[in-house]
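hey m, so remember when u said the tokens were messed up on ur end? i reran from scratch. heres the input so u can diff it against urs
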Amino acid sequence: MTRKLCAAALLASVSLAPIAAPLSAKEGMFTPDQLQEIAGQLEEAGLEIDPQELADLTGFPMGAIVSLGGCSASFVSPTGLVVTNHHCARGSVQYNSTAENNYLENGFLANSLAEELPAAPGSRIYVTTEVTNVTDRMREGTEGMEPYERYELVQQRSKDITAECEQDAGYRCQVASFYGGAEYKLIKRLEVRDVRLVYAPADSIGKYGGDIDNWMWPRHTGDFAFYRAYVAPDGSAADYAEENVPYEPEHHLKVSAAGLDEGDFVMAAGYPGSTSRYSLMAEVENTFGWTYPTFQTLLTEWIATIEEAAPEGTDARVKYESRLAGLNNFEKNLRGQIEGARRVGLVERRREREEALAAWIAADPSRAEYGEAIAELAQLSEESAQASRTNFWYNNATRPALLGVAERLYRLSKERQNDNALREPGYQERDMGFFRQGLQALDRRFDPAVDKAEWELFLTGYLAQPADERVAVLDEALGITAETTPADLPALLEKFYAETDLDEAETRLALMEATPEQLEASDDPFIELAVALYDYGFELETEAKTRAGRALALRPAYMEAITAWQRESGVLTYPDANSTLRVTYGEVMGGSPKDGMAYYPFTTLEGITEKDTGEDPFNAPQDLLNAIEAKDYGPYKLESIGSVPVNFLSDLDSTGGNSGSATLNARAELVGLLFDGTFESVNSDWDFDPRTTRTIHVDTRYMLWVMDKVDGAERLIEEMDIVR
């Protein structure tokens, strides 16, 4: 294959972000510091502000973009009002709900600051304030080390750098890896710990269409909600307290009521979770040939198990609503991933890419070390895939919530014997707030009957595996023998729930101070099981760290090869998503994901009534239906469609974690919230396809219309800077 053909194969098979002569100018999740390299493309696409402003994390607009630690969000008022997706805040709505006072069903609106409710324990708002390159410090002297020692050294350096950064009170710092460990950046974030729920429409708006419409187009979902950030009276970060006051951000976004139309420039700023666009073929084959299909089948059974054990209308169902929503979302996503991989021939495309890259390396003897590293990395990928398959059912068989609590408590007791700086991440003093809040939150997310039903499901799958894949220590601890059948499981598990005290929050919290010896002497069955499994779990962890240490030596070379190859074709290599701040850009546009199918770029209010059946999930509130019937559009109508736009499509590059990302127009005004992708585009986590990749946003005009005409949220509208 000639070098010209090599480049063509690469351009056809890997997500690329061009510097010049772009294949697709919409591709790429760019780090803020990369934006100056594509400034010309941004301006050509329609950006009206100076592209350099987007690289200033403390300026406008990036200073208004925040992370919720799993979702994205943004400040939209000078008094700490934060807008995000409904599904991102839904856990807090669920946490504050009961069967008698169900905010999921009825919605929640605080009519004053005093009525705003504490968000679910562990809720945070993070504002990125500084990014520093720490690559040299992280990688120095690691080349010749043994894999496990390399991993431990890199992790310790990460903890040391983080601790130095967090000497500034009120900040949460992170050392993030880019390009497989070729580059490291220290990210400093202001941590807001007092987060309160301000407004969330009812599920019949915020989750309209439910799991049926999830990942689908056309969509009519009001996926928006509001939090508020609070700090101590002196402005410092603080835990929840009545005397705390709203945080005053340096920057907030203006909210557009004028909106946008088809073909207009849009960009999104947020914190995408993870992508795998540079993964090797062994990982792709294992993921799509085994992991995803196996997990998708399990998820279907898992969802049915919860629904049966927690009937509609019960407090147990309220407790598990967030989990059900997440499982349904994940199950449908996996189906889309599997179908998308088949449709684009992902495995073959990845094979072609690797062959083309190998040919490029072979064309120049000076690149030989790249080839050696990639060959070793391919072998490592195969070993990791095998370990993933082997451990799959054991990992599921040890999922019960109270076993997880017991395992964390026992590990904490072990880690507390070490100096704080030497403890594993998750067990340092900086983590104890989250640790404690996680133990507290369990009360509103645990039901013993449901948990037991889940455990029986997972163990049924475990029992069905070959005998040589069973784990002796687990079998012995549970009393499982070669003759054990699924019918025996209820009796085997009953004592765990009948004899435990870990279902009491006071007990869980008190055990944070327990020593290993005290826990080893406990007769609580979940703690006994955790102690019995500890050594085996530690062995698995050590093996995983050793593989990670090998990858730290090999993957940077692979990414350096990819980067050099793409540079020869005028292509800027953007890193895989890793929950750090990214910007992506494009335009409002529909599409044709397959033959005979056309997507219009906007949906309208009238589409809600066309879908509405009066039954969940198509059960819009009557006030909303009445306003639509009266054509009470107010100032939110888009003339080109003759109605208020509900959701719109763009060709932005996005993935999980982007949920809640601010969708901005050319002047960096908020015009929507990114909340989903189409079913045909979910496979873009692995392979970007410009024809099928479309992102779904809730339009700010619909948000404002609901707030104005349906829910009476005038107080919040007045608080925001609305531009028309």
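this time it looks ok to me. DSSP finds 24 helices and 22 strands in the chain. if urs says something different then somethings off w ur setup not the seq
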